[in-house]
Each structure stands twice: as structure tokens, then as C-alpha cells.
Amino acid sequence: MTCSDFLKELTDYLDDSMDAQTRAELEDHLQWCHNCYVVCNTTKMTIEIYRDSHLYELPDDLRGRLRSAIMTKCQCKEGHEAVPDQTSTSSSLDSSKIK
Amino acid sequence: MGTIQPKVAEPVGDELTLVHAAKAGDISAFEELVRRYDRNVFRIAQHITQNREDAEDVVQDAFLKAYQNLANFQEQSKFYTWLVRIAVNEALMRLRRRRPERMVSLDEDIKTEEDSMPREVADWAPNPEQLYTQGELKEILGKTIQGLPPSFRTVFVLRDVEGLSTEETADALDLSIPAVKSRLLRARLQLRERLNKYFKNRTGGDGKQ
Questions:
Q1: What is the nearest CA distance from A21 to chain B, expressed in angstroms?
Q2: Are residues B121 and B191 in the same domain?
């Protein structure tokens, strides 16, 4: 396995979504390739640090104001009809879907 | 080496009950859904738009749109995944308005693999949390993710920050699973590369003094 092969599998390796044999091959590569070991470790730290960073937390006061505005707008909207089990495949969201 | 431990899933057992009640006109049930997910929607919106004002508008418009379209929610996915899809679309729309000169699309597949190939390899020691205060760290993380293309940071925030599965992310963004995996790999590697200058081992590096 080359370093390039290892990198291609890095996401599946970190997410633990691969078969046992591929995993063993990657771990064998990590045993002797220091660069891949460091890249793997620092990529894992990158993910963890973002996940635990609490970046862009919603402050309580703003949260209250937003919720109040949302609920006021919802209550003002007319024409909302309850349809418990809609089976149509069309959706008004489709027209605004962005790709 | 260990793998990334997924976030503990939020309890969703009663989510469907709330959705059914909201569909039947129970506004307090919908308010509970807002309370449950407003923080997530705000975080996603701010990550994509990189603008506080836009993020606030996205939160309001996404929930309002969800409310108006509840009847069209067919319950084939979690309500949260459906809501995220609406919020991402709203956020991208605002991003386009602010950057009309530049095409903003989830389909953009920027450059080839070489843009994500590690150029600098160095251990991060001591731990970044020991090197910087919380405020400094947030500034570094915000500045760094801002430099990623929108299509990469959107996938990264859904998968790695919000903890959606690959399948849920693909569903929310209307992308294929290989496309999600490809963007996620590049996003992770590019962020790692950019953070390297702040976090690499100082003994031989030229990081923060």
C-alpha cells in the first residue's frame, strides 16, 4: 500500500466504515509510515477540535428573540392545513432546491 | 489508532409524535421542534454563510418554510434531516446573494486530489487546547473553516460537527454517497493542512511564539 492509497481510505478508516481486511492493511501501513501516522492523527484531532469547539453557539437572548419571531410568523401564516399523511411526491421545496 | 467516536444520537423517539401533532395544527408541538433544533440550524447557517445576520435570517426562514410545508414532509427521513435540507438551501441562497460574482454550488468539485495532499507533516504537540485560550481557538477555527469552498465546509459541518451519517448528509444535500465522502476527505485534509501552521510542534516549527 502506498501513502496515496492510504489517504484515499482515510475517511472510511477514521469513520470505522470498512471491512476488517482493508483496516488491517491500513494499520500495517501506519506501523511503518510515520508521515501517514501523523497525518491520520492530526486529521482526527482536526475533526475532534471542531466538533468540541462550540463554534457559533446561539446566545440565549438571541435564541429567545428568534424563537419568538418564528412562532409569531407561523401563527400569522394563513392557509396552513393539516395533512397527516401526505403521499404525493411533489413538494413545494423542490422548486427551491439548490444544487 | 482510534477512530472518531460518533456523537451520541439525540432521542428521536417522540420526534414523530411532535411532527404529527404539528401537522394536525398543534403550534406548541412545532415550537418544541424549534426549541430542539434551533441551535443546530443556527450553527449550520453560520458555518455556510459566515455571516451572523444571514444566519439569523436562515433560522427564521428555515423554520417558517418547514412549518408551511409540513404537509409535504413524507416522513421517509428524520424531521431533522429534512429541516437541515431546507436550512442548507436557504443558507446557500443567501451566500449567493452576497457573492453574486462567484458561483456557489454544492456540485462544485474543486480541483483534483492534489489540492488535499498533505504538504506539511508535523505532530501537534502540545495539544492545541493547551496552546490557546478558548477565544483564540475559536478565532483560529472560524478563520480556517471560512477559507474552505462552501461545498466542502457544508459537508464537513453536517458530518463532523453536527454528526449526521454519510447517508443523512447525502440525503440532506442531494448528493451521492461517493460525492459526500470525496468532499469530506478533502475538507478534512484541507482543514488539517491549514491548522498545521497554528498547531504544529514548536520545537522545529515557526508557529506562534
A1: 16
A2: yes
Residue B32 resides in a domain: yes
Query: From the list A44, A46, A55, which residue is nearest B138 (CB)?
Result: A55
Task: List chain B residues with CB under 8 Å of A84.
Answer: 20, 23-24
Determine, for residues A12 and B71 on separate chains, whether the beta-carbon distance falls below 8 Å: no
Per-residue pLDDT of B30-88, as tens digits, reads 999 999 999 999 999 999 999 999 999 999 999 999 999 999 999 988 999 999 999 99
Tell whether B29 is covered by a domain. yes
Residues of chain B contacting residue A61, judged by C-beta atoms under 8 Å apart? none
B144, B30 in Cβ contact below 8 A?
A: no
Q: Which of B71, B98, B125 is the last residue of a domain?
A: B98
Instruction: Count structural domains, chain B.
Output: 2
Locate the chain A residue with the closest alpha carbon to B128. A49
pLDDT bin (cut points 50, 70, 90) of residue A85 is: very low
Q: Which three cell numbers stand for residue A13?
A: 478508516
Between the CA atoms of B82, B83, B87 and B89, what dihedral angle is there, to the nearest 10 degrees? 20
Q: What domain range is B158 assigned to?
A: 113-199
- Cα A12 to Cα B17: distance, rounded to the nearest angstrom: 35
Give ipTM to 2 decimals: 0.84
pLDDT per residue as tens digits for the range B142-152: 999 999 999 99
Work out the angle at residue A97's Cα, subtended by the Cα atoms of residues B77 and A79, and round it to the nearest 5 degrees. 80
